Amino acid sequence: MSKRHLIIGAGAAGIAALRTILKEGPQDTVTVVSEDREVYSRCMLHKFIAGERDAEKLNFINDDVLSGPRVEWIRGTAVSRLDGAARKVYAGDMELAGGDTVLIATGANSVTPPIGDLRSAVNAFGLRHLADARAIAEAGKSAREIAVIGAGLVGLDAVSGLLEQGEKLGLSRNITVIEMAPTALAINLDAHAAEAYQRLFERRGVVFHLGRKVVNTRSEASAGGPRICALEMDNGRSVPCDLVILAVGVRPAAAWLEGSGVELTGRGAVKVDDYLASSIPGVYAAGDAAGLSGIWPNAVKQGEIAAQNMCGVPWKYDDRFTLKNTVNFFGLLSLSLGAVNAGEGDEVLIKEDRRNYRKLILRDGVPQGLILQGEIGGSGFWQYLIKNQIAIGKLGKSVWNISYGDFFGTWDNGEYKWVLPA
Ligand SMILES: Cc1cc2nc3c(=O)[nH]c(=O)nc-3n(C[C@H](O)[C@H](O)[C@H](O)COP(=O)(O)OP(=O)(O)OC[C@H]3O[C@@H](n4cnc5c(N)ncnc54)[C@H](O)[C@@H]3O)c2cc1C
User: Fold this and answer.
1) Do the domains 4-42+60-109+251-310 and 331-418 sit in the same CATH topology, yes or no?
2) Nearest to 321 by CA among 404, 393, 384, 390
3) Residue with the nearest Cα to atom 7 of ligand 1?
4) Top-level CATH class of 331-418?
5) CATH superfamily of 4-42+60-109+251-310
6) Ligand 1 centroid to residue 365 C-alpha, Å
7) Per-residue confidence at 325, pLDDT binned at 50, 70, 90?
8) pLDDT tens digit sequence for 224-265
9) pTM of this prediction exceeds 0.90
10) Cβ pair 186, 70 in contact under 8 A
11) What is the rounded distance in angstroms from the CA atom of residue 214 to the CA atom of residue 179?
């Protein structure tokens, strides 16, 4: 029997779910509703700011999946309400669509802390949506003093985009980054690996204030609202600015579900079970809205799994190993898996030369985390070891020389198997 499916969101998770449904349910139809008018990769927004790619070149789908005969795409429309029992969605009072199953794949929004005028200022922007990147690119052309709050991946993405924009357009301006943590990229890397990036940014003129909080803003009145002209830090110093970028984190875009009956977690994400089903039968969630992870490949995986379940093919989301990060600025590549900092009693092994930095954290001979900077090949093998908590302490050779070969054996029938060291 054919089914009608409704997907809210046309990002990484929504599009992956759409593709899966079209394959798994050959008779099924799908309605996709998205607030965005375009489909684009958020991971590439800095390239838009830089002027390196236009909106079309951010599109990560290169086929007509959204315009096929079994698909209706309602774009540029924000869903404001879900009637969970009827599985229908509304924009204001207008009924938009309904389905036998519903997928919530609405992603996340930038967090704006309630400090000074940050929430109402006309010159403060998050970086999550294409509209944000458009606003930043435009404001960046006339800005002389740019302040970025947050030195995580998104904050530094914004800085790299603005640096490139400045180079291309011959703009002269100051860029200052304020970060509460003692290092940049604190979630992704350890202090040593993060400092390598900090130096690369500093070489291009960027100033960092690490371990500092923004506690207030100073603003001037303008037609549209307050215009921030300085950020005050907790050490009493101020950073002048005419453009502020907020990169202090995201919150799942799920507040609109209030009153729908869909249960949310304490962090505002859709609460899902192992099958990515919400508290309402037939309603699923995937990607950043489900709050299980905040990275692209996991959003895709979750979209695929939720869609299988929506088609009646039970599939568990059991790969909850989310601690994988890649960083690439100015050609310097890094990858981290699992923990980036050692816990008490952990053994830390480091190998470093002029071009590469490698750090492995072991607990009782079992790898807990790995950082590769420079050459990042061979990480799939390490991901397997960390995720499956495979002991490597008794191999009797340097950890930097072990390979798949140390763990593989063959059955009598020639089939490969993992052979764990005794
Ligand atoms: C600047 C930046 C850089 C990043 N870099 C990386 C990276 O290098 N590597 C990585 O793995 N991840 C990166 N990420 C994270 C990655 O982009 C996200 O994890 C991923 O996009 C999540 O996919 P999603 O489908 O859950 O949500 P999204 O891609 O955000 O898609 C959400 C969709 O829902 C729609 N929507 C939202 N609300 C509504 C509503 N009320 N009604 C209708 N539609 C709605 C939106 O229009 C959109 O179509 C980055 C994110 C940003 C912002």
Assistant:
1) no
2) 384
3) 43
4) alpha beta
5) FAD/NAD(P)-binding domain (3.50.50.60)
6) 37
7) confident
8) 999 999 999 999 999 999 999 999 999 999 999 999 999 999
9) yes
10) no
11) 9
